[in-house]
Design goal:
mainly alpha; 59% helix; elongated
């Protein structure tokens, strides 16, 4: 019977390039392509020319303009978000004031209802003392 460490080292050999998704390929099994130098690397163009300086200057200028455009766009986006924030803050303030006014109105109307319940002739009527018929004192004051 083979030992466990021997079992791990034995792997089925494949003749095609597709690998099982469960078993990662070994580095030795991967195909190797020759590496090529990048077009702008010193290995590609050995002799120096004045065109190289011109290209560098043009590339730097394009990069500078692109960076300015990106920063301007970012600033505009931040300004727009700040304006939206200010509008929402103003709307929030208006709504809080309205909530305060409505709360005060509710308090005033509740007090008025309590005062009315003390002297309401319909609530004081002996027929209205039956809780099954009219459990809510407000509905009992309403006309039928």
């Amino acid at each position: 019977m083979p030992r466990r460490d021997q079992e791990k080292t034995r792997q089925p050999q494949t003749t095609h390039l597709r690998f099982s998704p469960r078993v990662p390929p070994r580095a030795a099994e991967l195909p190797r392509w020759p590496r090529r130098a990048a077009p702008h690397s010193p290995q590609r163009r050995l002799p120096w020319s004045p065109e190289d300086d011109d290209r560098k200057v043009r590339r730097r200028e394009k990069n500078r303009v692109a960076a300015q455009r990106s920063r301007k766009k970012q600033t505009q986006k931040a300004d727009k978000l700040h304006e939206e924030y200010e509008c929402l803050e103003q709307e929030n303030t208006v709504l809080r004031r309205e909530i305060g006014k409505l709360t005060e109105e509710l308090k005033h109307l509740s007090e008025a209802l309590k005062e009315h319940e003390k002297m309401c002739p319909l609530l004081l009527c002996p027929m209205n003392l039956v809780p099954v018929l009219r459990p809510d004192p407000v509905t009992s004051c309403l006309p039928r």
